[in-house]
Amino acid sequence: MLPQLLHWFASCPRGLEELLVRELAELGITASAVPGGVAFAGGWDACYRSNLWSRLASRILWRIGEFRYRNEQEVYAAARAVDWPRYFGVERMLRVNVTAQKSPLKSLEFATLRIKDAVVDRFRDALGKRPSVERANPDVRVHAFLEADRGTLYLDTSGEPLFKRGWRAGPAEAPLRENLAAGIIMLTGWQPQEPLLDPMCGGGTLLAEAAAMARGRAPGAKRRFAFEQLNAFDAALWERVKREPAAKETSPQLYGSDNDAKALSAARRNLAEAGVERWVELAQADVLERTSPAPSGVMVMNPPYGERMGTPDELARFYPRLGDALKQRFAGWRCYIFTADLRLPQLIRLQPSRRTPLWNGALECRLYELKIVSGSHRR
User: Fold this and answer.
1) pLDDT by residue (tens digit) across 16-47?
2) Is 229 helix (H, G, I), strand (E, B) or coil?
3) What integer pLDDT is reported at residue 174 of this predicted model?
4) What are the CA-CA distances from residue 280 to residues 207, 209, 265, 303, 377 (Å)?
5) In this structure, what DSSP letter does residue 133 have?
6) In whole angstroms, how far apart are CA 79 and each of 9, 31, 107, 373?
7) What percent of the chain has pLDDT over 70?
8) CA angle 235, 236, 241 (to 5 degrees)
9) Residue 314 has what pLDDT?
10) Which CATH code is given to the segment(s) 6-156?
């Protein structure tokens, strides 16, 4: 019988750890932040609830083993010591992922291979047959995290990363993952009764996340999870968690625009797939000419910053014009700009009231808060 109190790790984009602690607390889960995520203890209800409802987590990992090591053979021995057939069936397709920080091992690829060998060898010893390995669409993912002399083994309960909500239409480029977009919305302090505008909305990720929050939609409602493939899966408990009362629904005032007709078309498809299109008003407009849809509200945007489009010289000409447009048309608004271009405060010629470090993958970024007040904040 598996113990009732299990240990979990929820990974998330760097910079959102404390926000994830607060989000899980609202789900009745007490967590502590560590770099790159949060750790918590609880039963399977905590696992199911965090997978279904967390807007910020990337994966929910079940910690099943810790060990000391000095070389690849000791990593193999530690992985082979785990009773893997206890956790999942031999018919499940397997993938192993290894990440490391200050590990002395020369090759993570070889470490990955040795852990895979350990898992399948344990199955062969116990059952006389082994699970197949599948990299693209595995049923079960084993994760190992290697530090200088310690290792941790996890089973992934999410499967596809949690930012894949199951609603994105087609292969359109998404410069923002959904969980980072949700974190940006939360960091603005936006409340659903406030107007919210994304004037460079692209495929509509920020708007879709804001609408889902306001409507109380579970981000995992349209997808499946890897915990359904594990031996410990409790279908009755999962059904009870899915039936738990959702957050209160509100009808938000959401506005989006872009000067690219193709981007707007993608946004419309994505919002429709997410089931929130009726709460978002879209228009084709240039951000420099866009007018305010309300006397006050929250503007949030992720403008191009060289990594995706626009040369540094083009952006150096764009940002001062953006600052002028905000000052002329958006007095009374709180504006938030997410960018990897750390020249923005100097170029936009407006003084940020707050700068929040965030990471978009490996790319260091900032979320700048600009409170637009007529006649002030000009450098």
Assistant:
1) 999 999 999 999 999 999 999 999 999 999 99
2) helix
3) 64
4) 7, 11, 13, 20, 31
5) B
6) 19, 27, 17, 59
7) 94
8) 95
9) 82
10) 3.30.2130.30
Q: How far apart are CA 173 and CA 159, in angstroms?
A: 22
The residue written with tokens 């005032």 in the block is 253
Q: Are 103 and 142 in contact (CB under 8 A)?
A: no
Residue 213 C-beta-side C-alpha neighbours within 13 Å = 28
Helices (H), the chain: 17-26, 44-53, 72-80, 108-127, 178-187, 205-215, 235-242, 261-273, 312-329, 344-348
What pLDDT, in 10s, does the model give residues 199-231?
Answer: 999 999 999 999 999 999 999 998 999 999 999
Its CATH class, for the domain covering 178-221+247-371, is alpha beta
Which of 312-321, 325-334, 349-358 bottoms out in mean pLDDT, i.e. has the lowest?
312-321
| Structural element, H or E, at residue 64 | strand 59-68
Is residue 254 a contact partner of residue 281, using CB atoms and an 8 Å limit?
Answer: yes
From the list 198, 204, 181, the residue with the least C-alpha distance to 265 is 204
C-alpha span between 316 and 308 (Å, rounded): 15
Angle at 353 between CA 351 and CA 356, to 5 degrees: 115
- What's the CA gap between 92 and 157, in Å, rounded? 14
Beta carbons within 8 Å of 315's beta carbon, 6+ residues apart: 304, 305, 306, 341, 343, 347
Sheet containing 94-100, strands listed edge to edge, beginning at the edge strand earlier in sequence: 31-34, 37-42, 6-11, 59-68, 150-156, 140-146, 94-100
Dihedral pair phi/psi, residue 59, rounded to 5°: -150, 155
Q: Is 306 left (phi over 0), alpha (psi -120 to 50) or beta?
A: left
Chain position carrying tokens 């059904």: 239
- DSSP-derived letter for residue 309 is S
Domain with CATH 3.30.2130.30 in the chain: 6-156
Rounded CA gap, 244 and 218, in Å?
11
